[in-house]
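FIELD: query
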Amino acid sequence: MMFERLSFKARKRLAILVLLVGMPLYVVVAVSLVNWLFPDPLDKPPVLVEIGIYIVLGIVWIWPLKGIFRGVGQPDPGRGGDGDGDGA
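FIELD: result
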């Protein structure tokens, strides 16, 4: 994929940026979308339908970005040692 060409450090930084900036923006967009689809507060969809919409939207946002997050929780593969950063 296109994110595999990035260095480990660049993917890690991009993942943090997505989590700190992109995800809150996506939450606002998702809630706004549901409010746009069901504008009348008295005519809301059933709770299970609304939860289903949010679950689908929660999966949709990560699908194109899964390459960024793959392996960023692991130690840097280009760095020797066990990757715990203690220098010993």
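FIELD: remark
Residues 2-68 form one domain.
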